């Protein structure tokens, strides 16, 4: 007897590539959460319908090829200079949505002056700040956000706070600037926090559209390759080691941003 053939039922689509993405494979290492951050931004651009009016700024670092992955206008800035370039673009083209996508070595080291003064001036731009506590692209050196005792290629015995200082908490610092309207820290280490990260990114873009000043979303991220652990272990490492040093939360939400009720 011929066995009965079970009819194949139509499947429900549960995933599709955001339209704000290009159809290209990324260069990021397996387990790196840069790709998660990219997807969240792309989803927000699609849902808000603003991809066509958006200009991204990517500096040197792991994010340097971001312009390949987003189907939006993009420019590349020198290391640390993304806020300055974004300032110029936004002032010349105030109707555009302008955001920078920066790592911790870029934003908190060579670009420290740029980001602080952009926030102090209240530039109406959005910053997505990827904090993985290490220089990812250049060889895994110690970054301004490297944790005390954390081993890197330039602190092989672990970061010694007596000689190398303490980690810099950028969100807490920038929240003190009068020009900052929205400054929060989220994480990409599990689904619940990823959902919160997406909401924060959308709030930051909404704040820019309303002309509410400088906004920054810091995202705790992984770097399994330079941390020397597996992708799965790196997610737990964020929760166990990074979150205690970089607590998640809202560090500045101006009244006008709070009224957006996103």
3D structure, described in words:
By secondary structure, the protein is α/β, with parallel strands linked by helices. The protein has one domain: 3-Layer(aba) Sandwich (Rossmann fold), CATH 3.40.50.970. It is built from 11 helices and 7 strands. The protein has helices at residues 34-48, 66-69, 82-92, 104-110, 112-121, 161-164, 170-174, 191-209, 224-227, 231-245, 255-258; strands at residues 54-58, 73-76, 97-103, 126-131, 180-187, 214-220, 249-253. Strands 2-1-3-4-6-5-7 form a 7-stranded mixed β-sheet, sandwiched between helices. Helix 2 (66-69) links the parallel strand 1 and strand 2 (73-76). The longest helix has 19 residues, at 191-209. It is globular, with a radius of gyration of 19 Å. The protein starts with 33 loop residues before the first helix and ends with a helix.
Number of helices in the DSSP assignment: 11
Q: Report strand %.
A: 15-25%
Regions with little confidence, pLDDT below 50 for 5+ residues: none
Please name the fourth-level CATH homologous superfamily. Thiamin diphosphate (ThDP)-binding fold, Pyr/PP domains
Any idea what the shape is? globular
What structural class do the secondary elements suggest? Answer: alpha/beta
Largest sheet: 7 strands, mixed
Helix content: 25-40%
- If you average the pLDDT, what whole number results? 93
CATH topology: Rossmann fold
- The total number of structural domains is 1
Element-by-element helix/strand order? HEHEHEHHEHHEHEHHEH
- N→C terminal distance: 61 Å
């Amino acid at each position: 007897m011929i066995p009965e053939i079970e009819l194949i039922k139509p499947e429900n689509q549960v995933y599709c590539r955001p339209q704000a993405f290009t159809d290209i494979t990324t260069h990021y290492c397996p387990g790196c959460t840069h790709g998660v951050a990219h997807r969240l931004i792309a989803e927000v651009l699609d849902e808000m319908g603003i991809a066509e009016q958006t200009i991204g700024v990517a500096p040197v670092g792991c994010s340097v090829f971001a312009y390949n992955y987003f189907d939006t206008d993009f420019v590349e800035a020198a290391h640390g200079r993304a806020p300055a370039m974004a300032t110029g673009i936004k002032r010349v083209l105030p109707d555009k949505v302008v955001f920078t996508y920066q790592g911790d070595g870029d934003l908190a080291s060579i670009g420290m002056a740029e980001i602080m003064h952009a926030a102090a001036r209240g530039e109406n731009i959005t910053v997505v700040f990827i904090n993985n506590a290490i220089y990812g692209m250049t060889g895994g050196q110690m970054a301004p956000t490297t944790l005390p005792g954390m081993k890197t290629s330039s602190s092989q015995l672990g970061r010694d706070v007596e000689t190398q200082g303490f980690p810099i908490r950028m969100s807490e610092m920038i929240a003190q600037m009068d020009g900052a309207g929205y400054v929060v820290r989220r994480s990409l280490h599990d689904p619940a926090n990823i959902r919160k990260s997406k909401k924060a990114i959308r709030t930051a873009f909404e704040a820019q559209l309303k002309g509410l000043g400088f906004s920054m979303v810091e995202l705790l991220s992984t770097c399994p390759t330079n941390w020397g652990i597996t992708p799965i272990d790196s997610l737990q490492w964020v929760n166990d080691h990074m979150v205690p040093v970089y607590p998640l939360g809202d560090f500045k939400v101006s009244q006008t941003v709070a009224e957006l009720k996103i």
